[in-house]
Amino acid sequence: MFFVEVVLPLSLAKTFTYRVSEAEFHFIKKGMRVVVPFGKSKMYTALVLDLHQNEPNLYEAKEIDQILDERPIATEIQIKHWLWIADYYMCSIGDVYRGAFPSGLLLESETVISNKPETIVNDSELSDDEFLVYEALHHQSSLRVQDITSILNKKNIFPVLQKMIAKDIIVLEEEIKETYKPKLIRYVKLHSKYESDNGLNELLEELKSAKKQKEIVLAFFQLKASEKKPVTVKKLTEFSNVSAAVVKALVEKEIFEEYLLQQDRIVYSGEKTDKQLQLSQPQEKAFLEIKECFAAKEVCLLHGVTSSGKTEIYIKLIEEYLITGKQVLYLLPEIALTTQLVSRLRLHFGDKVAVFHSKYSNNERVEVWKQTLENSSKAQIIIGARSALFLPFSNLGLLIVDEEHEQTFKQTDPAPRYHARDAAIVLANFYKAKVLLGSATPSIETYYNTQAGKYGLVTLSERYNNVRMPDIVLVDLKDKHFRKRMTGHFSDVLIEEITEALSLGEQVILFQNRRGYSPIIECLTCGHVPHCQQCDVSLTFHKHKNQLRCHYCGYSIAKPTNCHACSSIDLTTKGFGTEQIEQELSSIFPNAKTARMDQDTTRGKFGFEKIIDTFKNREVDILVGTQMLAKGLDFDNVSLVGIMNADNMLHHPDFRAFERSYQMMTQVAGRAGRSEKQGKVIIQTYNPNHNTIQQVTTHNYTGMYKEQLYDRQIYKYPPYFRIIKLTLKHRDFDKLKEGSMWLYQVLSQNLGMPVLGPEEPAISRIRNEYIRSILIKIPHSQHLGNTKKTIQKMLNSFEAVAQYRAIKVVINVDFY
Ligand code: ADP
Ligand code: ZN
Ligand code: ZN
């Protein structure tokens, strides 16, 4: 008898055994997908992990339904990596499989599909089955795969649907909510008939009498020569000071050709610059040191201050790996950052750059998946957020993790709760590839690893072009309030500096790490504060929408005019967010153009890109925003950064609060003065003497590192201890309390290491579920694998207690 061992896209810890025929056994390879029945009547796309002849003894193996692939679409290294993730982060292999595959490759009987409205379908090109599905979807806007099974009266219809997805006729329901429409940019080039050496002369001859048009052609060449990159219509019209209509006329006359370019999509048809990248001397030195370091070590940290030109060093390094035919993976902490980076990389590498991220449609993701697997020239460099780590690389040589300190590299929900930086290092190990971590503010863990000799360290301590580090000025809010030097939340110093920057035509960034107008509305008569009905938090006031909103569950109500408790109309706000800052700006600087960048304004499809573009194009003078501003953006005209209030970051109840505050402030400050002039940063705070703030002011990373490291050792935190956080949730407060106490006791009795809790977190109820957490601190002297096994055993026995079974337990290894 012949069997395959498969993983299902479900949260099940086990793999499952299915029967195959002898012929199938010889055809199937590890990494191919098969359709299998599961449960009473469900069908799933499963992945073959192994082939064997051992009959399972606990259940009778069912037969597979169908083989979906002709060749493996996942690699053995990839599967090995998934197994490592499941084991290390204590989740099921099914969780990893489901998270790794684009859902278009993972059809199951519950999947809901619809027709794709934009696609024009030619009936004659459809097979009979495809036609039936297409027809059925005209009568009912969406159908479950299960329903289609009965329409077609066939057991397995996955291959039919897969073809229809590939033809862009149908889409998965989940996609409809967020289909990614890449932004198109218009470019012009000289018409191909003038491409010969003498072409330009001929053209100028032709245009002898058309003075205006001749000027535009010359302007085009000037632009092309100075910028060494494709010329956009926008640039050309601005530069030659004509309207777009004139350019259009030239296109119609076949002097120019117009073409569209997607800013960060998979297709690329533009030109790349032949400009050789010229590293500055400090960059060159760092570059050589990195290569030297790679001769001896697998991982190297590039600790380069903000605007030191790390990206250019990455580019130079990527060049070397591409020459040897290797693939390069470039991980970013945030999808929104890809646009800026992709444009920069495409200038050098043209169409060798592929982007993989969750906002792309299934087809696009599947395309990159296949290109990666085939080591296609179109996917030599893959840029993505953390999930790009799951692609089927065939020849990976280099992994770059930019802004490695960012906490978004750690996935919180759902499982697998992996850290992309750490998982990248493990993956590199499997491929014998190298990892370059980059940051201006490395995480304590990473820096510790360099000090311990585990990773190499290369430091770049000056900015590119010899620009000086920004000058950081502290403003004592207590003193300013006392002396009545505040206008709203702006100190006189900040107002003065903004006024000056604006008068010089420079731009300003203001940072406040909280969105909305104010986090609290309070009744002045009775002190009542409106709270969310389902969560243990106050409702945030959003003035623009005149709403009170819960930032945890989305619940909202219209802003009350009277207190809910005593009907008084004396309501006041407490605390402030970006919305309030923007409003104050409009009265203090009525002539300045302002914009806001936070979750509320960037929600739309291109919200983020649009704001960045308008700011980059200097259509906005002052940009107010949350932490989104701290993530590696490159603006060349910002001379002033204001941090409205440094204190609420510092007071976060979290052992990483000081480290994070340092990183956040340093990164935001780093947006100032990136091109020529030294930038200025104003930090408003009630605690100007706080160590962390002093360290930011003096650019003293090492000071911050040493102080935090000392605390981490004393209080038993990473890098000295590994942390596993268990979060327990249940709707019944008493049951949760009892259950978490039970689990805590069992763990602390059996583990022989610090176990803290069960603690009620600052927000102890979300969506009507109460929350408790338990923190396990594992010293390096203890075997990590064995400890996890013991924890798993305790969790199993916890689940075996009938009255606790309904309590959800979330395991977060290396909690961030
Ligand atoms: P970092 O990532 O270290 O903050 P960037 O790589 O964004 O810094 O570089 C900062 C700015 O300096 C960018 O605008 C970049 O184009 C410019 N720059 C850096 N290195 C070079 C170089 N070798 N040649 C030309 N421009 C450079
Ligand atoms: Zn009241
Ligand atoms: Zn809520």
Automatic annotation (TrEMBL):
Which residues constitute the signal peptide according to the record? none
Q: Where does Zn(2+) 2 bind?
A: C532, C535, C550, C553
Query: How the protein assembles, per its UniProt entry?
Result: Component of the replication restart primosome.
What SUPFAM superfamilies would the database entry show? P-loop containing nucleoside triphosphate hydrolases
Q: What is this protein called?
A: Replication restart protein PriA
Q: Which family does it belong to?
A: Belongs to the helicase family. PriA subfamily.
Name of a matching Pfam family: PriA_C
| Species lineage | Bacteria, Pseudomonadati, Bacteroidota, Flavobacteriia, Flavobacteriales
InterPro entries for the chain: DEAD/DEAH_box_helicase_dom (IPR011545), Helicase_ATP-bd (IPR014001), Helicase_C-like (IPR001650), P-loop_NTPase (IPR027417), PriA (IPR005259), PriA_3primeBD (IPR041222), PriA_3primeBD_sf (IPR042115), PriA_C (IPR041236)
According to the entry, every stretch annotated as the Helicase C-terminal domain falls at 536-713
Enzyme class of the recorded protein, top EC level: isomerase
Give the residue spans that cross the bilayer: none
Q: Which UniProt keywords apply?
A: ATP-binding, DNA replication, DNA-binding, Helicase, Hydrolase, Isomerase, Metal-binding, Nucleotide-binding, Primosome, Zinc
Matches recorded under PANTHER family? PRIMOSOMAL PROTEIN N
* Organism (species): Flavobacterium hungaricum
Question: Which co-factors does it depend on?
Answer: Zn(2+)
Q: Please share the entry's free-text remark on the cofactor.
A: Binds 2 zinc ions per subunit.
Q: What reaction(s) does this enzyme catalyze?
A: ATP + H2O = ADP + phosphate + H(+); Couples ATP hydrolysis with the unwinding of duplex DNA by translocating in the 3'-5' direction
Q: Where does Zn(2+) 1 bind?
A: C523, C526, C563, C566
What function is annotated for this protein?
Initiates the restart of stalled replication forks, which reloads the replicative helicase on sites other than the origin of replication. Recognizes and binds to abandoned replication forks and remodels them to uncover a helicase loading site. Promotes assembly of the primosome at these replication forks.
Query: What is this enzyme's EC?
Result: 5.6.2.4
Domain Helicase ATP-binding, first and last residues per copy: 291-460
